[in-house]
Automatic annotation (TrEMBL):
Stretches assigned to coiled coil: none
Name assigned to this protein: UTRA domain-containing protein
Record organism: Marinomonas maritima
Domain HTH gntR-type: 3-71
Keyword Transcription in annotation: yes
Amino acid sequence: MLNSQYRHLQTYFKDLIRQKTLKAGTKLPSEREIGEQFKLTRVTVRQALQNLEAEGLIYRQNRRGWFVTPPAVIYDPASHLSFNLYVSKQGGIPHTEKLMQQVEPATAEIAQLMGIQEHTPILFLHRRRYIDQRPVLIEKIYINIDLLPGIEKEELSQSLGQLLKQKYQLEYRDMDLVFKSTSLPSHAANDLGISAGQAGLHIERINYTSDKKVLEIDYEFWRHDAMTIKISLRD
């Protein structure tokens, strides 16, 4: 009986979303209001909503409630477009919030990846990125300041790609990318305002100069419903 109740509720909201009766960004009624309308328990309502969330149709923001998920942005790693550019090109409004910035000694792991000595000063940058005012991505970036002198004095909520081009006459070219489907760790989930353990996408990116030196190492944590990866290969 419980199974059929939450599946009926799940189908009800799924149809409203697919028919665009409920549009992207629309706030759903509270769980209590839904339960009262359909004469269902809070447990049954929560099960239906969590299933819709797993399908990427709705999302929950801590202390704000449930919302209809906007269309995912398309990310093509081969395009070398910055977050600001590919979000804007797809009709979204990007925004970046700097959470922390500090020069710190390189750990053994980061030093090995960068090909530098352990404890060499590097710049750590922690940012939260938004699409249409919705937090979708957490970045933890380690920057080789020996290759980019003075970058720690710049306004680093802006596009790093544009800053490299304008100030240092550098562009992102070669990169190593690793994509991992994962449960969001607590630090990333907290920064995104969602519950720890939810599905997410973890991207590890290493950007190189033209002479194969590591410019930066970027660890990204995405909401699972916010981005679709598309890679076009041509002969």
